[in-house]
C-alpha cells in the first residue's frame, strides 16, 4: 500500500448549501446504510455542492473524480508505474477511498466508457470489495466507505446511457434549479450581492430556461448566475455582466442571443 | 376666370403660355402666383415655355394642368432644372406610342418629388422610367416601335405605393425583373406591374426596406416563448392593402396577427423592437385579461374600458420587465392637451389617449382636473394588486360619465395622435350575448381567407433561371398528399415472384448489417498488439522514460446511419410498354421499388418513398408512398400497389421538396435516389434546357445540405442530359427488365 495523505481530502469549512426539501435527511439515511447514491440533475444546480456539504456534515474525507471518455479502469483502481528501479503500484482514487473510508464521488459518470464503469460493481453491492487483478489483492472496503455518482440526464442520454445493471445498484436523488425565492437567496449569499440584483438575475435565468428544447439544450445554471453576480461585484455594468456570463457561454445562435439580450435590457433597465 | 378678369401683370404671362384651353384660365392665377413665389424670374419663364411644350404634344389639357399645378413645388424642392427635365421627357414620350402613359406619369410627380427629394434621384427616376418604356415598347417588325408598353401605365399607377415601400434601387431591381421575365408576354407583364401576380409581390418583398416578419419569425417566436411562455402561432398581415386605414394587430383562436413589415420608427426604435412591443402587449392581455360582457356597455364606454384595460396589463407587465416602460412610452403618442378643442370633431379618442399617456408618463404636464383625478384613481387601484378588467371597467365608465361632452356625438372623430401602434384591437376582451351590430366590425374579408384551411396549402419553391442566373421566387406551387391506396396483397405477390432474387439479396444484406469493423488504437487492453506503438514504447523504456502502456488495438462495430428517400417519376411516359417487354415501365418500377423497400426494411435504414408529377408550374404533385416513420407494412404496400402515372416531369421542385424532408432526418449520411425515365420537362416551358438546369441547381442545393443524389435512369438516351444534372452520380439501366435486380444492388453498392 502506498502512503496517502488523508488530510488533503478533508473538508474543513462548511460549504454553503441551501436546503430545498428533505435531501439532507435522505442522504443521511442512505449513508447510515452505506447505500451507494446517484445524484441526478442539470448542470450547475448544486449536486457537487450538496455532496461536499454532506461530506463535511458527516466528517468524512471526500475524493472526487471527474470522469471522461479516456478514463480506463486502471485510472480508477490503480496501476503499476515504471520508474528507474522497476515497478511500483499506486492506488487509484477509488481504491484509496475504499481503504481509508472516504466518500468517493464520481462526477459525470456517464462520460466514461461502459467497460470502465463496471469496475465499480463489486463495491456497490453487499460484497463491498474491490479486486485488484493486476496486483492479486482484494481490497475490502472500509466500513465508512460510500460511493456517490452524478449523472446529468439531459442531452447526453441520447448518446450515452448508464447500463441498467449499473443504474440499479444506486438509490437516486433528483436535483433541479431551486424555486425562485430560494435561488435568489443562493445567488445573494454565494456572490455576496444585494437582493434586488439577485432577483433580476434569477429572472433572466428563468427566461432562458423557458427556451430549453426550443433551441437551447440546457437553460442557464445557478452557477452562471453566481458568476454574473461576481462580475457585477467587480464593477462591471449589470447588462454587460449578464451578457458575458449568461448569454455568450451558452449559445452561438444569433436569434437566441438577440432574444436573451433583449430580455436583459428589459430587466436591467 | 376669363382672361378679362386677370390682373394686368398676369395677362402678359398668360400670353406666354401658348395654350388656349379654357380650363387653364380657371386655374392660371393661382398657379402663376405660386410659381412667382417659389421660382426665379427665369424659372417662371421656363415654367411657362415648358407648359407650352406640353400643350403642343396634342394630348389634351390634362397633362398641362397637372404640370402647372405640381411643378412649382417640385422645382422649389429640388431645383429649377427639373422644369425642363420634365417637359423634355414628356415631349419625348409623346413621340412614342406611349402617349397614354403621360397623364399617369404626371400624376406620380408629386409623390416622387416628396419621396426622392433631390434632383439626382429625380433624374434617376426618369431614366428608370424611360428605360422601362423603351424596353417594353413593342414593335412588330423590329424597326419602328408601334405597340405601347403594356406594363407602363400600370406601373405608373402603382408608383405612389411602390415608392413608399422600396428605395429607388430596389424599385429598379423590381422593374428589371418584371421586364426580363415578361417582356414577351403582355398579359403577364400587366399582371406583374399591377402587383397581381405572386412573384411580383414576392420580388417586391425582397427589395423592401424595414424589418420583415419573414426574416424574423423565429426570433419573435423565441421572444414570445422566452419572456412570456407563450407558444402561439404568429401570422403576418399585409400592410400594403390600405395605407389610409391603419390595420391593428389582433389575436384569436387561430393565432396572433402582426404586420408583415416594420420600418425603424422616426424616434429611433428599431423594427424588431416595435414587433416586440406589440407582442409584449398581446402577451400581457393573454396573461391578465378576462372577458367582459359587452351588451351592457355603450360603444363609448367600451373604448374607454379598452383603453384602461390596455393600461392595466401594461402596468403589470412593466412590473415584471421594467425595460418595457421605456419602449412603450417611446411608441405611445403624446397628444397636446388643447389640440382637439380647435376642431369640431368628437374628442373622445383624444381624451382617452391623454388619459393613457398620463398614466404612463408622470411628466405628462396635463392640467385638466378630471384627468388628474382619474390617473390617480388608476394608480391607487393598481397599488392594491393585480386588479381585473371588471375593476378598471368601473373606472372607465365613471370617466366617460364625468367627462362627457356634447361634441362627442359629432359625426367625425379626431384621430390625430390617438392611435397607439402596438396595441391590439381588443376583440378578445368582449363577449356578446345578443346579436348586435358591433361584432361585425371585427369581421373583415381577410379573416375568412385565413380561417378556411381545409386542404393543405401549397408549398412554394423557387426555380432557377439559367438565363439570368437568378432564382424566380415562389415560382412553383407544390401540393403534397398521401398517395391513394390499393390492394396490399399485390405487392406480396411481387415479392413472391422474385423469390430467387430476394434470397440472393438476403445473403448480401446479412453481410451488410451493422458489422463494419473500425480499428481503435492506443488501447491498454485490446485484441491485438499494435506493433508500431509497442516498439516506440519499448524504446522509451530503454532510454529511461516512462513507456506508454497503450500498445494494443481493438476493433469496434461501426453502425449504419443512412437515411434514404426514393423519388419516383410518375409522369405519363412511364405508362408505356418498352420494346420486348410485357409490362409497362410503371409496373416494372413498382416491382423494383417493392424489392428495394423490403431490402432496406431488413437493414433497418430509415426510408421514405414518394412519387411526383407536374402539370405546369402551378401544380406540381408530390405524393407520399412511405414516410420515414412508417415500417414496411400493409398500408405502404397498398399505396405502392395503386401507383399511377400521368402528366409531366418538373424535377427540380420535387428534388427540393424531398431534400426538405431528408434534411430533417438525423442521420450521418443522406441519400436521394431518383428513378426516372426521361428528362425534366413540363408543358409550360418551351426551353429544353431550363428545367434541366434547374434540376442541376436543385441537386447542388441538396449537396450543400449534405444530401447525396443519385439518378437511376431508364431512358437509353439518358447520357445526353443526365450527367448535366447529376454529374457522375447516375446509373442508366438499359435493360428495363433487369431493374428489379439492379435497383437493390445499386443501393447496396452505394451504401456499403
TrEMBL record, chain A:
Residues 183-266 form the CbbQ/NirQ/NorQ C-terminal domain. Residues 36-170 form the ATPase dynein-related AAA domain. InterPro entries: ATPase_dyneun-rel_AAA, CbbQ/NirQ/NorQ/GpvN, CbbQ_C, P-loop_NTPase. The keyword Nucleotide-binding applies. It holds the Pfam family AAA_5. Keywords: ATP-binding, Nucleotide-binding. One of its GO terms (molecular function) is ATP hydrolysis activity. Transmembrane segments: none annotated. Belongs to the CbbQ/NirQ/NorQ/GpvN family. This is CbbQ/NirQ/NorQ/GpvN family protein. It comes from Leucothrix mucor. The lineage of its organism: Bacteria, Pseudomonadati, Pseudomonadota, Gammaproteobacteria, Thiotrichales.
Amino acid at each position: 500500500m502506498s502512503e496517502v495523505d488523508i488530510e488533503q481530502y478533508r473538508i474543513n469549512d462548511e460549504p454553503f448549501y441551501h436546503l430545498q426539501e428533505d435531501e439532507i435527511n435522505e442522504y443521511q439515511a442512505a449513508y447510515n446504510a452505506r447505500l451507494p447514491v446517484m445524484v441526478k440533475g442539470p448542470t450547475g444546480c448544486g449536486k457537487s455542492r450538496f455532496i461536499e456539504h454532506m461530506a463535511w456534515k458527516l466528517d468524512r474525507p471526500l475524493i472526487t473524480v471527474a470522469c471522461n471518455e479516456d478514463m480506463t479502469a486502471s485510472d480508477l483502481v490503480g496501476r503499476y508505474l515504471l520508474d528507474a528501479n522497476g515497478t511500483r503500484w499506486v492506488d487509484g482514487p477509488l481504491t484509496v477511498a475504499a481503504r481509508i473510508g472516504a466518500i468517493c464521488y464520481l462526477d459525470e459518470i456517464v462520460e466514461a466508457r461502459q467497460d470502465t464503469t463496471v469496475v465499480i460493481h463489486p463495491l456497490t453491492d453487499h460484497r463491498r470489495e474491490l479486486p485488484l487483478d493486476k496486483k492479486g489483492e482484494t481490497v475490502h472496503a472500509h466500513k465508512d466507505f460510500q460511493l456517490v455518482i452524478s449523472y446529468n440526464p439531459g442531452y447526453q442520454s441520447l448518446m450515452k446511457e448508464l447500463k441498467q445493471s449499473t443504474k440499479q445498484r444506486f438509490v437516486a436523488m433528483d436535483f433541479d434549479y431551486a424555486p425562485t425565492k430560494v435561488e435568489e437567496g443562493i445567488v445573494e449569499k454565494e456572490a455576496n450581492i444585494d437582493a434586488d440584483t439577485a432577483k433580476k438575475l434569477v429572472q433572466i435565468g428563468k427566461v432562458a430556461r423557458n427556451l430549453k428544447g426550443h433551441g437551447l439544450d440546457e437553460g442557464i445554471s445557478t452557477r452562471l448566475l453566481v458568476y454574473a453576480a461576481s462580475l457585477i461585484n467587480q464593477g462591471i455594468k449589470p447588462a454587460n455582466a449578464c451578457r458575458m456570463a449568461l448569454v455568450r457561454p451558452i449559445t452561438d445562435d444569433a436569434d437566441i442571443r438577440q432574444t436573451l439580450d433583449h430580455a436583459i435590457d428589459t430587466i436591467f433597465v | 376666370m376669363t382672361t378679362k378678369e386677370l390682373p394686368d401683370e398676369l395677362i402678359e404671362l398668360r400670353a406666354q403660355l401658348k395654350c388656349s384651353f379654357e380650363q387653364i384660365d380657371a386655374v392660371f392665377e393661382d398657379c402663376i402666383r405660386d410659381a412667382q413665389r417659389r421660382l426665379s424670374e427665369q424659372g417662371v419663364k421656363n415654367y411657362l415655355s415648358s407648359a407650352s411644350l406640353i400643350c403642343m404634344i396634342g394630348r389634351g389639357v390634362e397633362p398641362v394642368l397637372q404640370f402647372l399645378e405640381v411643378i412649382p413645388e417640385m422645382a422649389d424642392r429640388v431645383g429649377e432644372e427639373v422644369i425642363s427635365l420634365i417637359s423634355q421627357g414628356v415631349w419625348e414620350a409623346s413621340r412614342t406610342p406611349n402617349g397614354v402613359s403621360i397623364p399617369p406619369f404626371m400624376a406620380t410627380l408629386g409623390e416622387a418629388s416628396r419621396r426622392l427629394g433631390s434632383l439626382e434621384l429625380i433624374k434617376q427616376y426618369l431614366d428608370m422610367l424611360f428605360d422601362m418604356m423603351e424596353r417594353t415598347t413593342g414593335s412588330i417588325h423590329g424597326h419602328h416601335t408601334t405597340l405601347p408598353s403594356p406594363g407602363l401605365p400600370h406601373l405608373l399607377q402603382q408608383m405612389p405605393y411602390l415608392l413608399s415601400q422600396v428605395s429607388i434601387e430596389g424599385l429598379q431591381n423590381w422593374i428589371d425583373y418584371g421586364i426580363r421575365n415578361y417582356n414577351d408576354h403582355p398579359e403577364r407583364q400587366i399582371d406583374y406591374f399591377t402587383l397581381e401576380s405572386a412573384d411580383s409581390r414576392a420580388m417586391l418583398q425582397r427589395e423592401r426596406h424595414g424589418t420583415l416578419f419573414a426574416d424574423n419569425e423565429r426570433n419573435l417566436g423565441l421572444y414570445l416563448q422566452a419572456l412570456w411562455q407563450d407558444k402561439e402561432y404568429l401570422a403576418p398581415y399585409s400592410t400594403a392593402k390600405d395605407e389610409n386605414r391603419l390595420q391593428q394587430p389582433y389575436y384569436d383562436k387561430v393565432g396572433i396577427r402582426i404586420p408583415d413589415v416594420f420600418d425603424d420608427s422616426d424616434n429611433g426604435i428599431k423594427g424588431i423592437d416595435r414587433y416586440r412591443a406589440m407582442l409584449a402587449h398581446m402577451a400581457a392581455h393573454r396573461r391578465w385579461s378576462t372577458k367582459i360582457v359587452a351588451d351592457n356597455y355603450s360603444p363609448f364606454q367600451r373604448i374607454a374600458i379598452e383603453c384602461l384595460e390596455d393600461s392595466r396589463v401594461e402596468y403589470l407587465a412593466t412590473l415584471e420587465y421594467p425595460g418595457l416602460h421605456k419602449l412603450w412610452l417611446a411608441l405611445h403618442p403624446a397628444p397636446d392637451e388643447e389640440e382637439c378643442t380647435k376642431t369640431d370633431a368628437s374628442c373622445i379618442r383624444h381624451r382617452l389617449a391623454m388619459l393613457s399617456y398620463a398614466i404612463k408618463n408622470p411628466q405628462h404636464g396635463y392640467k385638466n382636473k378630471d384627468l388628474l383625478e382619474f390617473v390617480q384613481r388608476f394608480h391607487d387601484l393598481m397599488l392594491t394588486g393585480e386588479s381585473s378588467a371588471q375593476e378598471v371597467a368601473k373606472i372607465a365608465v365613471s370617466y366617460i360619465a364625468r367627462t362627457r361632452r356634447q361634441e362627442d356625438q359629432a359625426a367625425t372623430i379626431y384621430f390625430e395622435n390617438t392611435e397607439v401602434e402596438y396595441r391590439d384591437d381588443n376583440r378578445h376582451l368582449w363577449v356578446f350575448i345578443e346579436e348586435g351590430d358591433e361584432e361585425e366590425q371585427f369581421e373583415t374579408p381577410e379573416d375568412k381567407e385565413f380561417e378556411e384551411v381545409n386542404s393543405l396549402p401549397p408549398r412554394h419553391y423557387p426555380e432557377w433561371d439559367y438565363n439570368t442566373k437568378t432564382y424566380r421566387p415562389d415560382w412553383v406551387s407544390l401540393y403534397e398528399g398521401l398517395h391513394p391506396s390499393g390492394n396490399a396483397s399485390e405487392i406480396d405477390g411481387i415479392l413472391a415472384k422474385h423469390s430467387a432474387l430476394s434470397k440472393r439479396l438476403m445473403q448480401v444484406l446479412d453481410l451488410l448489417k451493422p458489422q463494419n469493423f473500425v480499428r481503435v488504437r492506443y488501447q491498454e487492453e485490446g485484441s491485438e498488439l499494435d506493433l508500431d506503438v509497442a516498439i516506440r514504447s519499448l524504446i522509451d523504456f530503454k532510454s529511461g522514460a516512462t513507456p506508454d502502456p497503450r500498445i494494443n488495438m481493438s476493433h469496434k462495430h461501426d453502425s449504419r446511419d443512412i437515411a434514404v428517400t426514393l423519388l419516383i417519376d410518375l409522369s405519363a411516359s412511364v405508362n408505356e410498354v418498352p420494346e420486348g417487354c410485357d409490362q409497362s415501365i410503371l409496373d416494372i418500377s413498382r416491382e423494383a421499388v417493392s424489392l428495394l423497400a423490403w431490402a432496406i426494411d431488413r437493414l433497418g435504414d430509415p426510408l421514405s418513398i414518394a412519387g411526383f408529377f407536374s402539370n405546369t408550374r402551378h401544380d406540381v404533385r408530390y405524393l407520399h408512398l412511405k414516410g420515414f416513420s412508417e415500417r414496411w407494412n400493409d398500408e405502404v404496400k397498398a399505396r405502392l400497389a395503386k401507383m399511377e402515372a400521368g402528366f409531366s416531369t418538373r424535377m427540380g421542385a420535387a428534388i427540393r421538396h424531398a431534400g426538405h424532408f431528408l434534411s430533417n432526418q438525423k442521420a450521418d449520411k443522406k441519400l436521394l435516389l431518383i428513378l426516372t425515365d426521361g428528362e425534366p420537362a413540363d408543358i409550360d416551358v418551351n426551353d429544353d434546357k431550363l428545367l434541366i438546369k434547374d434540376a442541376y441547381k436543385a441537386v447542388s442545393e441538396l449537396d450543400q445540405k449534405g444530401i447525396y443524389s443519385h439518378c437511376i435512369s431508364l431512358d437509353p438516351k439518358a447520357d445526353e442530359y443526365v450527367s448535366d444534372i447529376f454529374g457522375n452520380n447516375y446509373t442508366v439501366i438499359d435493360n428495363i427488365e433487369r431493374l428489379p435486380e439492379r435497383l437493390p444492388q445499386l443501393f447496396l453498392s452505394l451504401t456499403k
